[in-house]
Amino acid sequence: MKAFLLAYFTIIIIQNTVCSNIDIHKDSHFPVLKGPYLGQKPPDLEPELFAPGIISTKDNEALFGIFKHGTYIIFDRKPNGFKDWAKNPVYITQEIIENWEPPALTENLGRPWYLDYPHPNNGQEVYYTWWLPLDKNGRISDINIWKVKFTEDRWGEPHKLRYRINTNHFDAWPSIAKNGVLYFHSNREDSFGRSDIYKSVLVDGKYSTVENLGTKINTPGLEHDPCIALDGSFLIYSSDREGSQGKDDLYVTFQTENGEWSDPINLGASVNSEASENRPYLTPDEKYLFFTSTRNANLDIFWVDVKIIEELISHHAANRFHPSEK
Length: 326
Known about the structure:
Elements: H1 2-5, E1 48-49, E2 60-67, E3 72-78, E4 90-96, E5 99-100, E6 104-105, E7 119-122, E8 125-131, E9 143-151, E10 154-155, E11 159-160, E12 171-176, E13 182-186, E14 196-200, E15 202-203, E16 206-207, E17 211-212, E18 223-228, E19 234-239, E20 249-254, E21 265-266, E22 277-282, E23 288-293, E24 300-305, H2 307-321
Antiparallel strand pairs: 1-24, 2-3, 3-4, 4-5, 4-6, 7-8, 8-9, 9-10, 9-11, 12-13, 13-14, 14-17, 15-16, 18-19, 19-20, 20-21, 22-23, 23-24
């Protein structure tokens, strides 16, 4: 099982970052914080609210990404009632000279094309989701997957991935394995439900075909937010399939040697709740699983030791071979 847990994860470190556009203001009330992840005590096998009062507040927060060995964090924060999706407030906080700076709104990452959650494929390229401007009725008109290159101190011009990845349906939440296989969710015409998980294999530098992961993974309900291990060995995603504890839960499935997927396993009552859990994110240091939850009546960021997956699988295997002990 350690082979799964020692795998490289989807999100890898961007070596260079943009600092020139960051509007950081000193805050005399901001606590002195040192060390990775804002100096927070690492969680164990029980999920904990991430940086309460600093990152996770009474507003609605969701994670963008964690870079530079846990010393550079991007997230968004939407006050309750905030509805202007075209101006998604994006914040950045980072450790500079051994001290964390207060979260500050950054125009660079808040540009209209840079919305939703980026998934770096390498140090020079980021795949991300962008929704087109709202229509006259205030609804999102389309969602597609884009990529942008990062060179030295700036983001390049974004490029929309071509047809088969993108359609006139909602195509979102890219996650890329080391071999270039792209996973995402979509509600395109051949989906089994409201949204399914798909993959596309990179061949000669192009994504020419798209494959639905099938009914073992997808249901008539909602499957979304895939997060693939960098070696492709396992996939974490959100689903409201039958048996879920809440609105939608986090599940894990493992890829066998012949490319098939195992039956999805619910991450359990400690991770999932009667509310909504989604947006799984595996940190670059291969130690923690971040996710968002509405269990506190607003959107919050939680984190947990990734060993919970190993514990879960061990328990699941024991129950399979010793059903009388359930």
